[in-house]
Design brief:
Number of helices: 12
CATH architecture of the largest domain: Orthogonal Bundle
Number of domains: 2
CATH class of the largest domain: Mainly Alpha
Shape: flat
Helix content: over 70%
Radius of gyration: 23 Å
Distance between the termini: 41 Å
CATH topology of the largest domain: MetI-like fold
C-alpha cells in the first residue's frame, strides 16, 4: 500500500467519524424541528423521526404568543448582566495578573475555586439577599444575581488572555506618558478583543440558559425569563410536544445565532488564551 493510499484511508476514516458525530449531535435538533411542525395528535401516533405529513405552524404561533414577553425579558437580563460581568471581570482579571500585591495568588486561587463551586449551594443565600433588598419582583434582582454568579467566571477567563500579552506593550505606553486606565482602555482591550468576545459569548450563554435562579427569583410572571416559561409549555393533561419543541427552538435561537456570527472570534480567543505567546 502506497503512502498516498494510507493517507486517503486515514482521511476517509476521520471524515466518516466526524460525519457520524455530526449526525448524532444534530439528531435532537432534527427531532425538535419535525415535531414542532406536526399536529398535536400526530406527535403521539407517528415515529419521532418521521417527518410531518403536512407541516403546520400552529405550534410555532402558540409558542411565540406565550414566549414573546419572556424572550425579551431574557434578552434584557442577559445583555445587561453580561455587560456588567465582562466589565467587572476584565478589570479584576487585569489587576490580578499585572499587579503584584500581598495575597494576589490566594485571591486568584479563591476566584478559581469559586467558579467550580456548584452554584445550587448559593441558591438560599442569594435568595435571602435579594429578598432583603426587596428585589424579588424586579429585573434588577435577576441582573444582580447573575452578576454575582458569573463575574468570577469572567475574571478567570479574562485573566488567561491578559497573561498572553507581553508586558512590553504596557511599558511602551507608560513611557509615552499614558496612565494605567488609559493603557488598559487603549492598548490592552484592543489587543485582547478576541478574548473579550470569547468571554462575552461564554457568559451570555451561561446566563441565557440558566434555569434554577430564573424560576426561583422571578416571582412576577411579567419579568420571568424564557427558560422557566419553556418548561411551562408542556400542557396540563397531556404534553403538547409540538408546542414544547417549537418553544425550545425559539429559546435556543439567540445562542445559536451568536455562535454562528461570532464563532471565528470565539475560536481565535480560546486559542489565544490557551497558547501563551
Amino acid at each position: 500500500m502506497t503512502p498516498k493510499h494510507r493517507y486517503l484511508i486515514k482521511i476517509s476514516l476521520i471524515y466518516s467519524i466526524l460525519i457520524l458525530f455530526s449526525i448524532i449531535w444534530l439528531m435532537p435538533f432534527y427531532i425538535a424541528l419535525v415535531t414542532s411542525l406536526k399536529s398535536h395528535r400526530e406527535t403521539y401516533v407517528t415515529n419521532v423521526l418521521q417527518p410531518p405529513s403536512s407541516p403546520r405552524i400552529e405550534a410555532w404561533i402558540e409558542a411565540w404568543s406565550r414566549l414573546a414577553r419572556p424572550f425579551f425579558n431574557s434578552l434584557l437580563i442577559s445583555v445587561v448582566s453580561t455587560f456588567l460581568c465582562v466589565i467587572i471581570g476584565m478589570m479584576a482579571g487585569y489587576y490580578l495578573v499585572r499587579f503584584n500585591f500581598r495575597g494576589a495568588q490566594a485571591l486568584f486561587f479563591s476566584i478559581a475555586v469559586a467558579t467550580f463551586i456548584p452554584y445550587q449551594i448559593l441558591l438560599i443565600p442569594i435568595t435571602q439577599l435579594i429578598s432583603y433588598l426587596n428585589l424579588m419582583r424586579s429585573y434588577l434582582g435577576l441582573i444582580l444575581t447573575y452578576t454575582l454568579l458569573f463575574s468570577p467566571w469572567a475574571a478567570l477567563i479574562s485573566s488567561s488572555f491578559f497573561l498572553t500579552i507581553p508586558k512590553e506593550f504596557e511599558e511602551a505606553a507608560f513611557v509615552d506618558g499614558a496612565g494605567i486606565l488609559e493603557t488598559f482602555l487603549r492598548v490592552i482591550i484592543p489587543i485582547s478583543l478576541p478574548g473579550i468576545i470569547s468571554t462575552t459569548i461564554i457568559i451570555f450563554m451561561g446566563i441565557w440558559n440558566e434555569f434554577l435562579f430564573a424560576v426561583t427569583l422571578s416571582m412576577d410572571p411579567a419579568i420571568r425569563p424564557i427558560q422557566p416559561e419553556v418548561a411551562n409549555l408542556r400542557g396540563t393533561t397531556t404534553v403538547a410536544w409540538n408546542v414544547l419543541m417549537a418553544g425550545s427552538i425559539i429559546a435556543a435561537l439567540p445562542p445559536i445565532l451568536i455562535s454562528m456570527i461570532l464563532g471565528k472570534y470565539f475560536i481565535k480567543g480560546l486559542l489565544a488564551g490557551a497558547l501563551k505567546r
